[in-house]
Amino acid sequence: MSLEPSADPAADRRANYDYRSDDVDRPALVDDLETLVDCEVRADSYSRELYATDASPYELTPIAVAFPESTADVTGIVDYCAEREIPVLPRGGGTSLAGQTVNRAVVLDFSRHMNEILEINPNERTATVQPGTILGTLNEALSTHDLKFAPDPAWGDKSAIGGAIGNNSTGSHSLKYGKTDAYIEEVEAVLSDGTVTTFGEVTLEKISDRADSDGDLEGRIYAEVDRILEEEGNLIEEAYPDLKRNVSGYNLDRLVAEARGKTMPGGEDTGEPGTVNLARLLAGSEGTLAIVTEATVSLEPIPETKAVTLLCYSDLHDAMRDVEPILAHDPSAVEVLDDVLIDLARDTAEFGPVTEILPDGTNAVLLVEFYAEDADHGKEQVAGLLADRFPSATPTGVPSADAPQTEAETLAIEALEAYEKEERAQLWKLRKSGLPILLSRTTDEKHISFIEDTAIPPAQLPEFVEGFESILEDHDTYAAFYAHAGPGVLHIRPLVNTKSEIGIDQLHGIADAVTDLVVELGGSVSGEHGDGRARTQWNQKLYGDDLWRSFQDLKTAFDPDWLLNPGQVVFREDDPTDLREHLRFDPDYEFEAGFEPELVWENDNGMQGMVELCHGCGGCRGEQETTGGVMCPTFRASREEITTTRGRANGLRQAMSGDLEPGEAFSDEFVEEVMGLCIGCKGCAIDCPSEVDMAKLKAEVTHEYHQRNGSTLRDRLFANVATLSAWGSRLAPLSNTASKLPGARKVLEATMGIDSSRSLPTFHANTFRDWFEKRGGAQISEQEADRRAVVYPDTYTNYNHPAAGKAAVRVLEAANVHVTVPDELGDTGRPAYSKGFLETARETAHENVSKLAPLVEDGWEIVVIEPSDAVMFQLDYGDLLTDERVVQVAGATYGVCEYIDAFRLDEEIAFDADAAGEALTYHGHCHQKATRKDHHAVGVLRRAGYAVEPLDSGCCGMAGSFGYEAEHASMSDAIASILYEQVDESDGERVVAPGASCRTQLENRPGATEEPPTPIEFVDAALE
Ligand SMILES: Cc1cc2nc3c(=O)[nH]c(=O)nc-3n(C[C@H](O)[C@H](O)[C@H](O)COP(=O)(O)OP(=O)(O)OC[C@H]3O[C@@H](n4cnc5c(N)ncnc54)[C@H](O)[C@@H]3O)c2cc1C
Ligand code: SF4
Ligand code: SF4
Fold first, then answer.
1. Of 326, 398, 504, 808, which residue is most buried, by most CB within 10 angstroms?
2. With a 6 A CB cut-off, is 55 part of the ligand 2 pocket?
3. Full-model pTM
């Protein structure tokens, strides 16, 4: 058996990752299907539960999950299921908000294998892709041709083209681009009986020719389309709301408009009458008509320039009244944010600073964006708008003579302009602050998506908002209003507790009343997110009985046994869809963690609140290239749902609420494959819109696992790495030689499970502390110094890399800081915390806080070189201790570059410009990224004279001891390969990284010539 680590975590036999549980629900079905098709099929409890949810409030365990690799796999599965009347559900990223991908069915996850871009034709401006291709990835590939797939759903970097077609997705720029349907040229599709066909542009004659109501499935589909066009064209024209954005029901209005050569609402020209594009009928069909296995889509040029203005209002109603007049100026986007969200944003660390640009009295804003030919044109358009909508402004540009002047009363109280990329990004950031804030509640009441994307004719928006507010008041709750005001699509998520009967009544009552209001005002219940489980039941009220029957007939024609994602868009009277059924949290929901949490949980509902916090948006499925950030490295390496933060959060919640076997959360399998593969990078704590803190949850579960099952020697050794290092240092150089003896590492792997391909850290006989003592301690006396700092001798710096400690002391002294390196301070407790030995971590934390608090009280500051140790003081001690001195110590603790940057100590230092000539590639530590402290080192290095290229990198994959563990080495390598690629593509001559683990990992990068130094060593090297 080879012990070589593999870049593919699943292929490493030491790892034994199969990403599933042993408990298979329908083994015969799996066997049958795996005999019939080439792809993998899973029906174990973990896999089924992982696919029981999406970004909606719904949950329903599917029958099985398959990962098709080809159209043949899809036909094989569909055919098999059709014969046995088993429902089938196609799925992309699973980011639907209305429950479209939640069903009792065999789920086809296209995102894993069928995700290739098959062809880009820049001349024709088309791309042909498989259905699992992520929109962000497609756009990344298209950017070299200055082209894009134009519909821009907010979660496009996590959503697949199949899902975008299924939901007829669109985004902030729908005013310019409309919805996905306008861009579908042709699809290859598998029909409900397993037939493969192609849908695309077709003449009405051809439809009639192919129509055969007694023939095969295709013939019957054509017959039904023919009938609809013949008999129901007028009804459809009348009954569909006149909206640029309406994704409720089937896409029949486009079918009729194309057949008749009529203009679509919003002005899209459908060309000459007499042809329709049947592929577009699948848009918004939510997987209920056919399964797309390949799609050719048309593309748009990327606009040259953009200009943005932010109009401020004293209340939301004024903003709503201003939407229609603004539309006269032909903007590319008009987005709204109300006072509820502005106030919430003000109180957050991330968005608070952006709100500071708003003038006093602002209670609602409209962000208006223009696409422009060049910068002057952008300014001209903004000036034109302001001349009309806020005449007291003195805009940067000059309005053109033909800029529209509306008669409407002016309502804005202020206007801001933004032309540069960064300024525009700030304003968009403010607009996008809504969702993360709303979704970070850990209470039982949550901002639920169920009527969250109604579409209303813009002129009716003021009346609609008033009506909606009074519905909310009648139901004793509230919501924030935000999103795409331009096309009349408002995102509104009322606060509801679906764990209570009252909440369930509110859900139904609000949805019912809102549907009435929507119908009265000529709107639609969904302008963006689709029908799903939440809105399907309102389609009959929206379209009337006749069209409802047409929907049923169309569904029957495509899918005679109603097996494709049944119950979505339309239902049979004997099997109705009710928005109150299959909720993730309902009055029967029970939560039992099975243990008392060890850590301090200050959020509402404590640990339970955190376990239940993930709302399933799939943000943790974003790729490094398109999403950036840290979350979630294990998914990026494995592309397995179980390795996303969402997978782990779902697994934990399901284990603690009875969906999985009692005690499952502490089974070997769960701890190894669900929690154990979380590398504790804290990426989710910052990048997840809800700030799900999986690293902290993992610490709790691992701790409880140790309580129940004991711990391994290896875990105990890694948790006590400080003691091990002290001995290693005492016995150096012998300890270093021993580990390099032939066969020594193989023995370590065989006996301890420590990966034999890793070189072990080198111990220094002369520790950092020894060096400090030998040099006679501080060289700047307390009296002459400007500040006093304890340089914390963290384990790694002290025993393995004293050079960083020495550099820190020299740099701080150059900045006139009096430095001490106390003897009595040991480990921070980080390794014990990470390995789930929380009592040990707490004791260590208590000792350190007791020693450091008096120093802090006396005015000392604490400077830590190893980032994860700094964050231990700054953040994690607060999870271990309630002692108020923790806050005091945390407030006085700094990473070494953070310290220099925060107090601009480098302004005191003379640097040698020649010494610092190098161009550096900087990889920050994930824990510092999670605490937003990553930028300090970059600033300090730049001011010291280096050209620094900071990478938007995630975790290095080493994550303390994780990468040393034989069964984790392949996952660690796979994560590292993402970082290696980023480093290879960067321009730096040398790499710099503050974290010990990252530096070890980066030394292993193919082609690396050294272990990257820490930033402070580079700063030291630049001292005059
Ligand atoms: C935070 C957040 C923001 C969002 N913002 C937007 C937005 O701005 N605009 C917007 O439109 N939506 C938005 N959405 C909803 C959702 O992200 C989009 O609709 C997205 O395009 C769905 O893509 P997906 O790959 O996740 O599809 P999924 O959720 O996996 O599937 C969507 C539907 O398509 C069907 N489907 C999937 N693959 C196929 C296939 N191969 N053949 C046939 N049917 C298929 C599914 O059965 C399902 O009914 C948002 C969601 C979240 C969580
Ligand atoms: S963990 Fe966060 S990012 Fe991932 S699905 Fe849940 S809420 Fe979304
Ligand atoms: S801590 Fe890191 S690895 Fe673990 S779930 Fe969060 S982002 Fe993923």
1. 808
2. no
3. 0.96
